[in-house]
Amino acid sequence: MDTVVATNPPQGPKGSWLSGNLMDYRKDPLGFLVDLQKNYGGAAKIRFGPQTMYVIYDPALLKEVLLTKQEHFVKLKAFQEARLFVGDGVATSHGEKHKRVRRLIQPHFTKAHIQKYALQMVHIVERELRTWKIGERRDLTEDISNITFAIIAKTLFSLEGDGYARAIREPYELINRMCAERMRLLVSMPLFIPTAKNQAYKSALHALDQGVYDIIKQRRAHPEQEEGDLLSVLMEARNDQGEGMTDQELRDELMIMFIAGHETSANALSWAFSFIMQQPEVERKLYEEWDRVLQGAPPTAATYMQLTYTQNVLWEAMRLRSPSFFTGRSATRDVQIGSIQVKKGQSVLFSPFAIHHNETYFPDPLTFQPERFENDLLKNIPQFAYIPFGGGPRGCVGNHFAMLEMVIALCMIGQQYRLRLTPGHPPIEMEPLMTLRPKNGIQVVVDPR
Ligand code: HEM
Fold first, then answer.
1. Is the pLDDT of residue 79 over 80?
2. Quick one: which residues bind heme (predicted)?
3. Is the pLDDT reported for residue 5 higher than 70?
4. Among 31, 193, 340, 399, who pairs with 389 as Cys (CB 3.0-4.6 Å)?
5. Cβ(327) to ligand 1 under 6 A?
6. Cα 292 from chain centroid?
7. How many angstroms does the Cα of residue 91 sit away from the middle of ligand 1?
8. What is the pLDDT of residue 387?
């Protein structure tokens, strides 16, 4: 694909008079987003019902939205549905409120700070792997989600044990599905109408809330227990008037950390394994790197730096299966992006998944090829051409944390076991819910390494 600069004004598929392009999006969200780029280049204009929106692909346009003109945008209005459960925490808030919390949490996610989490991450993976047995079949996506959830719970909030995971992950399963479904409707059923689906959704939302409020309650009762973790930092923070966060504000921040922090990494890792299991050459190179660098020991913050092929496998998995496949911004005033006049209230969407399929920057884009990240690929393509973690001031705060935990888990699983897909495993399909996950999980047989 040639680099295509947005035409002025951007064009887009016609769609139906009532719902615009919504039905085509609903039928196949990923295909729709990739085709828009193929057919319209750097930017396309689409309509979901009465709302006209722009979908941008050109890295130069993205740079304006995410960096140079980011102050004229807030998180996508269409994500209101997700606010039902994530609330108004750092990922959804804006302005001063966002800045204040981001400043508060950012120091906990610097490269230097997360090094001290490495050992805790190793212990959690070790504990999980102790329950695996040679020859058994396992649901890999479920196992990895257990690991990434336990890592967030322990490192950020000093929580241990399955109780927290059950209290949060179980209701979240249904919420994730329902939320994604409702976001794809032009008009979703108001929640006060007592349909069976609505009732189930509401009781899951209530259970999720309860799970998080219980954590806050316990810590308020025993504040002396843990000092210096993210929860205590959030609890001790004071605004200019000397006021601390309310329970609801704390709930919103915890919720986003749990949700944004565990599902994305679990999906990225699951996808990485799906490629490794199907490409013996990639597996061989990983073994070679682990044997050479780690010599049987678990990774540390220091050896992490030398595990470059392992990191490239993860970068490539996130290129082809970007967990955050679709996101966007809404303009708070009229603003010009390239040659596009975005009106106040209009939305600008972008899809890391589709952007990563641009063959100008990623030749042979459908092939899994970790080697493409060698020789500083990211320095040789435009900024914002590869954005698994977004970018600019609203980029992922947990990017280094995620890379470290994923490298640790990938190495430790692979040093001990050779995973293979169960015989006759169906093709692993993509399921775009709140994040991009493997539909029906990935079932594996655990062989000795
Ligand atoms: C592979 C794993 C991950 C991926 C692919 C990922 C991806 C992203 C992306 C694309 C965004 C920006 C969304 C936008 O611009 O609309 C984001 C934001 C965010 N992520 Fe991650 N993330 C991952 C892991 C994590 C982890 C481990 C944490 C926390 C421990 C985390 C916490 C957040 C938060 C708090 C935000 C909102 C930042 C803000 O708005 O200031 N993420 N993430």
1. no
2. 396
3. no
4. 399
5. yes
6. 31
7. 8
8. 98
The CA angle 153-324-54, to the nearest 5 degrees, is: 145
Q: How far is the CA of 401 from the centre of ligand 1 (A)?
A: 10
Name the closest-CA residue to atom 16, ligand 1.
327
Question: In the numeric block, which tokens belong to residue 149?
Answer: 């959830």
At 443, is the secondary structure helix, strand, or coil? Answer: strand
pLDDT at residue 1 tops 50 = no
pLDDT band at 223 (very low <50, low <70, confident <90, very high): confident
389 in contact with ligand 1, CB cutoff 6 A? yes
As a dihedral over the C-alpha atoms of residue 213, residue 215, residue 216, residue 219, rounded to 10 degrees, the angle is 160
Which atom of ligand 1 lies closest to the CA of 328? 16
**Which ligand 1 atom is at minimum distance from the Cα of 387?**
10
Question: Mean pLDDT throughout 338-355?
Answer: 96
Least confident window among 19-28, 74-83, 102-111, 334-343:
74-83
Give the β-pairing of 417-421 and 443-448: antiparallel
With a 6 Å cutoff on the Cβ, whether 101 touches ligand 1 is: no
Given phi > 0 = left and psi -120 to 50 = alpha, else beta, which region is 250?
alpha
State the distance from the centre of ligand 1 to the C-alpha of 292, rounded, in angstroms. Answer: 32
Sorted by where each begins, the domain ranges of the chain are: 22-448
Mean pLDDT is lowest, of 40-44, 111-115, 162-166, 445-449, for: 162-166
256 lines ligand 1 (CB under 6 A): yes
For 291, phi then psi, to 5°, come to: -65, -40
Q: Tell me the best of 349, 396, 437 to mutate to test the pocket of ligand 1, counting ligand atoms within 8 Å of each CB and taking the most.
A: 396
For ligand 1, whether the C-beta of 91 sits within 6 Å is yes
Distance 264 CA to ligand 1 centre (A): 8
Banded model confidence at residue 2, pLDDT cuts 50, 70, 90: very low
Assigned fold of 22-448: Cytochrome p450 (1.10.630)
Higher pLDDT, 271 or 190: 271
Contacts of 230 (CB under 8 A, 6+ apart): 105, 108, 156, 157, 257
Q: Binding site: what residues are annotated?
A: 396
Is residue 4 over pLDDT 70? no
